[in-house]
Amino acid sequence: MTIYLWMSVLGSTSIWFVYHLLDSLDLWSPLSRLPAAHWSVRITSRWFKRACASNGELKTLHATHQVLGPIVRIGPREVSVVSEEGLAKVYTSGLDKSEWYAQAFPIYGMPNLVSTLSHKTHASMRRMIAGSYGRSHLQHAEQLQAISARIIQDGLLPNLHRRVQSAEPTNVMELSECLAMDFITGHIFGDTAGTDFLNENSHCKPYIYEWRRASGSFAKRPLTEALVLEKCRMVISNYECSRDKREYQRSVVIQLYKGLSDYAEQGRLNTTEVIPRCASEMADHVIATLATVPVILTYLFYQLCRRGELQDSLRAELRTLTSPAVGHDDVTVLSEPAILDELPLLDALVMETLRLHAPNPARLRRVVPSAGLNLHGYFIPPDTIISSNAYCLHRNEEVFARPFEWDPTKWRQLENSEPQSTDTSKLRKMRKWLWAFGSGPRICVGQHLALQSRSRAQ
Asked: Domain limits of the chain?
């Protein structure tokens, strides 16, 4: 009797073990049909993490997609996709973000557009400030024109002139960081409240060291965060105390403050959270600018320094502008942003630098909704983490010729094609695959400002 009892227990234990083994292997999950980066990704993400630590995350993903195709399983519940179909169904459709963003990007303990997971919540927040970053607004905003003229005339050009006169070596990364900081703070806080780091070299040094140290998503930036919080409080206080509020209403922080204050009056937000939420959003805009614009400008300067003939061509193109960079009596006269957009060489230089040296080439994680997702003939079940990345998209040989080579002519050669030509179709496809700012309803809110500031720096 005892033997039968033990055999029964052993049999039950064996069945339980086999069931959980099969369950852990996920053999009956729809994900089991997907091409796997490694056999072990069905039960653990350790292989992918080790491969990323050895070869880098992006190189690992690129090599994996090169072998296995546009959709690959990289973990028990994680998938990577690099295709037009993936971009349309994952990003254009507005899937929610994964929990990783809430852990990586909160500032002052408050959410912002980047750390907000819900697509609906993000959309309502974005509407408060989207107008201040719209292309049409930026191209015709007198305040932004004044900020650009002030930064170039009083900051950038005198700075460069001093360096030329003294034959002083120039750290272009540091110069670009100061330029980006002055530009973004002028835009979000107003010209009089913006920084003047281009002329305050000793004052900005601690901030520059902090930016270099805090390169990761989870890194803290106490000096920068304290500066942004102080400026938020100052601008909002001035706005509340001012009789003529028109001067302040143009700044991004006031647009957000008014929107969040309305939320507080409706009982949708605690009143004490309004200013910290404003500061969290503005700090995110500053940090995002410092993590992108200086990187692109530095790579662009580097590539131009290696090609004297391109420098000559760019100077010749800029001299065709009716408004020179510096007019009579050293008064800065800037061309309209819309005119700068029409310069083919400048556009090609920026596009190619964004392609090969995208400042945010990493995975953008999204969560598959409750209904699941059909992608490339596979069913992706709910709660699966799915992502794409600019690094792999920008190195697709079928879209970009010689993808590992910086060559702006690949954009210029197609510009003058006939409207119905194959070349024009290729150019449209290249622009569609250029994913430096993401895509869909959660595309980078500052993409037009970033492109305008880069063009101004030329």
From this structure: 119-360+436-457
